[in-house]
Design a protein that fits this description.
By secondary structure, this protein is α+β, with helices and mostly antiparallel strands. Helix content is 36%, strand content 22%. It has 2 domains: 67 residues, Serine Threonine Protein Phosphatase 5, Tetratricopeptide repeat; 146 residues, Alpha-Beta Plaits. The chain starts with a helix and ends with a helix.
Length: 230
Amino acid sequence: MEINAKLLKTDCQNIDCLNRLGKAYLELGDNKKAATILRKVLKIDKYNPIAQKNLARAFSPATVKKTTSNSQVGSTPRNPALDFLEEPGKTKLINLVNLAPTRTLLKQKQADHLNLVLKRHTVMAEDSDGNYLGSLPDDLAHRLAILIKGGNKYCVLVKSVSKNGLIIFVRETFRAKKYTDTPSFATNSGDYFSYVRDELVADTPNVTTEEDDDASAAEKLHADEESEAN
């Protein structure tokens, strides 16, 4: 808490620090203080999924509805029973591999927002606290890494979780101009993909990248596509 408080002295609108501080107060049972900080996040980014989720935890549903109606957030309570619809090429359900310990997996809930973290040729999934959950299979990781570095953006949600499995839902929320005719996920296999209604996902992508020299990314992607076609 002290580190986040110090960081906020130099940048009072640091959303990551505010979210961490808000959750810290929430864990300590100081819901009033947590709510004050989380509302500040939502004034900066009114659709921030982490702040919305923790604000919903801080109060009963009736209180959340009352407090958010007077803010910029609007009333958007988190619903674990979100409708997962289908759209080819833009969305996909993915079984993570190299999973985290069971105790970490079982902390996740359906429709929780996750982060994709690029680390060289690996794409990992982490929860909002930065806890590692698992990795994408190599073929999907390679493809998404290229697309993300090229400017594509994605929303990631938990679809289902068990003691020895975690299925995530990945949706393309923005397609870079150079990939206008390139779907995020191949559709020639006849597979179908799931997506969540637009109003239920955040505008900002949950993606963190590490620098990796990949100047010929687009060429690699198209080479992979030609290989798949053959």
